[in-house]
Amino acid sequence: MRFQHDQAIAAPCDQVEAAFCDPRFYEALEAMPNLGRPEVLGREERDGRMHLRVRYAFTGDLPGPARRVLDPAKLTWVVESTVDRTSHRTEYRMVPDYYPQRLECHGAYTLVAETPRSTTQRMAGELVVHYPVVGRLAERGIVLGLKEHLAAEAGVLEHWLAERP
User: Got the DSSP string for the chain?
Assistant: First the structure.
C-alpha cells in the first residue's frame, strides 16, 4: 500500500531537521502513547549525510485478531534513515526485529519551510503486510497509526524545541 502524508510542524525547518538528527530528541519520544523509549543504535555522519538507526517498540494494546498472529512482546523494529541536510530529504526503511517476512516499509520525507517558523514534513512511502486475507486491512490500520504517530511526534518535537535555548 502506497501512502502519503503532510504533517505541519510549528518550528523552523533547520531546527526540525537538527532535532531529527539529535539522539536527545528520541529520549523525549518516550512520552508518546503506544511507544516505548526509542533507542538510538547508531548515528554517523558520512559524505555530508547523517545515517541513523533507531529501535522502537510498540507498547499499546493489540486487537484480539492481531494477537492471534503477533506476539506483542515482539513488536520491535529499527528505522534506518539517511538524512541529506542539503536537500532536507530523509530516506527511511523500517526493519522488523521479528516477523521480517511479514512486513516491509520504506519511503522518504522532505522538510519544506513554509514560513520562517513553520515546516511541513511531506512523507511518502510503501507498506506491505505479507499475510493472507488480513494483510490489506492490517496495512490500512498501520498507515492510520503512522499518521497519528506523526501528529503526536510533531507535538513532542514542538515542545522539545521550545524548551531549548
Answer: -EEEEEEEESS-HHHHHHHHT-HHHHHHGGGSTTB---EEEEEEEETTEEEEEEEEEB-SPPPHHHHHH--GGG-EEEEEEEEETTTTEEEEEEEESS-TTTEEEEEEEEEEEEETTEEEEEEEEEEEE--TTTHHHHHHHHHHHHHHHHHHHHHHHHHHHHT--
